[in-house]
């Protein structure tokens, strides 16, 4: 494999597999608020927060991590201002104290933070304006959860993406246009594991810890616990339960960090936990586990690259495609079988919609992982869905592009209507 391609895939892994605390959308709001407060350099008297519809959708019903059970955009912004550490980026709220949580509760309903909806902006967009006694700061985030694109203080532009001091996240995060399924498999086969093992082991350790927390305690809807209590403890059940349990805890405010994938903690848990469970059951080497995780992570990133950061397409599906591909690779599957696993998964659960971050995400993860395991079992027997059947194409690369088009373009109106329903902007009865 060409050295430039090896380097590119390594950069993608290092850029994507980073720790984050809780659901990444409220964390992004908190990061923006904490960064704005740091720039203000005085006590914040008022916050104005405007976000894209997809940010609103993903923050509305999820518990803000380390908040003591509080929910919502205002809570995320206020906690970011009160106790957030901007230098920690997606772990910004790890420094929040009991005093910060109590003060946040007292400020939420006072008008201290006003929230608005911003139209005609990227799907992932946050604008925070913080005002003090003497100064005012505006800070914008777009496209990626920690990608600051604008900083202003007292009307003066201090930084704007595209300017001479531009720090392009993607310039150091790898070129997704160079990705292919064959390239991912070749990279997994040949990369020197010393270059990526620390990143992969951190993913295993952190995601296993929050998964275990979800199994040990009563978080969320207890999807993971329910699976083990009712389905048994074979590897298929454990793979679904482990992934769901991590989401159970994460969606309900567990402060443990998660190593994310495609900007999502849920997707980071989904690509890793099923692969780890199969590695334990099959008693494969640590090297085989790492190489399988490379396939899982990169397949998920590859599919999500076409869909975009946030959409009405449930990211648990693309992440489960990655997990299924990683399991097939672990079991000796070649390019053809790995491609079949992805096609079989998309042909089954490609229609799951995202209606925001919340406890039911754990169930969607369990369903998607279950579909991916079925897809893996079918592909190992050379069984699956054929080209021309629905969105499935003979060429797996085209199937992936098909689902990318559906998620990015075809579901735009679906995304808007989901948001309308969630924010009570439509009289459903009158439309039926």
TrEMBL record:
Lineage of producing organism: Bacteria, Bacillati, Bacillota, Clostridia, Lachnospirales
User: Could you say which protein family the record assigns here?
Assistant: Belongs to the UPF0597 family.
Q: Which organism is it from?
A: Oribacterium parvum ACB1
Protein name (database record): UPF0597 protein HMPREF9625_01401
Q: Where is the Serine dehydratase-like alpha subunit domain?
A: 88-420
Q: Name one GO biological process term.
A: L-cysteine catabolic process to pyruvate
The GO terms describing molecular function are: L-cysteine desulfhydrase activity
Matching entries from HAMAP family are given as:
UPF0597 (MF_01845)
**Per its UniProt record, what InterPro entries does this chain match?**
Ser_deHydtase-like_asu, UPF0597
